[in-house]
UniProtKB/TrEMBL annotation:
The keyword Hydrolase applies. This is Peptidase. The lineage of its organism: Bacteria, Bacillati, Actinomycetota, Actinomycetes, Jiangellales. The keyword Protease applies. Signal peptide: none annotated. Transmembrane segments: none annotated. SUPFAM superfamilies: Class I glutamine amidotransferase-like. GO terms for biological process: proteolysis. Belongs to the peptidase S51 family.
């Protein structure tokens, strides 16, 4: 394989002071944040990348998402985590809710349906080139990860992030897909949702590996219906000695180059 096509792990030096990472007795956070992104061999002009990873919806400080944008290009809303919705109307309503929320903070958006790009990574890359931000909403993480795989979006996002050409943003399932592995998340998101849609699909247990640990949203959030299930996921990770990002609703993990904050 030619060196220019070889992909390898690049460790982005992303170290943040401990006081910027909120502590919790039940869900201890790391004293430093390590985020890794896949890059191309050879020199790169910029090792920066931008992430806005919310527990639920836009979070308590959506202005931090806007601050990551460098142009007025629109937001590509990817709602494929909702592909297992019981009706097309429910899925359409989910997309509309995201577009309306983004409009409310001054961001124009459009839906980018990964189902329109199965086996077409070049077409998908061209569509994402029109966007400043990709917003991946919540739903079933295995359904979303499958859609990312069959469209080639997983590789496209790795490249775009390595070259700092897009902001990867979203909540719940969207950020969860950035972990090295999705194992454990089946305690909350049923894999059967994926197999109903695609009976011959293999369950995708691997994440994109952009984050160095699992992302666990909705923790300690009594008003969210999944807080109990994700609490079990967090307990499982602790018992396994597996680190994870612990977020309650309202919080977001924000990465802007070497600056990382969870608040």
């Amino acid at each position: 394989m030619e060196p220019s096509r070889v992909m390898f792990w690049v460790i982005a030096s992303v170290i943040m002071c401990v006081q910027t990472i909120p502590r919790s007795r039940n869900h201890p956070q790391p004293s430093c944040a390590l985020v890794r992104v896949v890059g191309r061999c050879g020199p790169r002009q910029d090792d920066r990348m931008r992430l806005y990873l919310s527990s639920f919806r836009l979070g308590a400080e959506p202005e931090r998402l806007r601050a990551l944008a460098r142009s007025d290009r629109p937001v590509a809303v990817i709602a494929n985590a909702c592909d297992a919705a019981s009706s097309d109307d429910l899925r359409s309503a989910a997309v509309r809710a995201e577009l309306d929320a983004l409009t409310g903070i001054g961001l124009a958006g459009f839906e980018l349906d990964l189902r329109d790009h199965v086996g077409d990574p070049d077409g998908l890359a061209a569509a994402l080139a029109e966007a400043e931000i990709a917003w991946l909403r919540g739903g079933n993480v295995f359904v979303l990860r499958h859609a990312l795989a069959v469209s080639g979006a997983d590789q496209v996002f790795r490249t775009l992030l390595a070259e700092d050409r897009i902001v990867y943003a979203g909540y719940s399932a969207g950020p969860c897909c950035l972990a090295p592995s999705l194992r454990g998340l089946e305690l909350c998101d049923p894999v059967d949702d994926l197999l109903r849609l695609h009976p011959r699909a293999e369950v995708p247990w691997d994440g994109l590996g952009v984050l160095d640990r699992a992302f666990v949203p909705h923790l300690d959030t009594p008003g969210h219906p999944e807080t109990g299930a994700v609490g079990e996921i967090a307990r499982h990770y602790r018992e396994q000695g597996q680190p994870y990002w612990a977020l309650r609703d309202g919080q977001a993990l924000v990465v802007d180059g070497d600056h990382v904050q969870l608040r």
